[in-house]
Amino acid sequence: MTNLIQEFNIMRDDLDYKFFLNGEWKVSSSGIKIPIKNPYNNDLVGYIQACTKEEVNQAVKNAKENIECWENTPIKKRAEILKNAANLMNQWANYLGELLMKENGKPLNSAISEIKRTALIFDATAEAKSELIGTTMTGDIMEGASKEKISITYRVPLGVVLCIGPFNYPFNLTGSKIAPALLAGNTVVMKPPTEGSITASHFGVILQKAGVPSGVFNIITGRGSEIGDFLISHPEINMINFTGSSETGKHLAKIAGMKPLLLELGGKDAAIVLNDADINNTVKSIVSGAFSYNGQRCTAVKRVLPMPDIADILIEKVVEETKKLTIGDPSQNRNIGPLINSKQCDYVQELIADAIKKGAEVKYGNKREGNIIWPTILDKVTTDMRIAWEEQFGPIVPFIRVKTIEEAIEISNKSEYGLQGMIFTNNIDLALNIAQELDVGTIQINGQSSRGPDHFPFIGTKASGMGTQGIKYSILNMSRPKVVVMNLSEKGKLIRFCNQ
Ligand code: G3H
Question: What is the value of pTM for the model shown?
Answer without folding.
Answer: 0.96
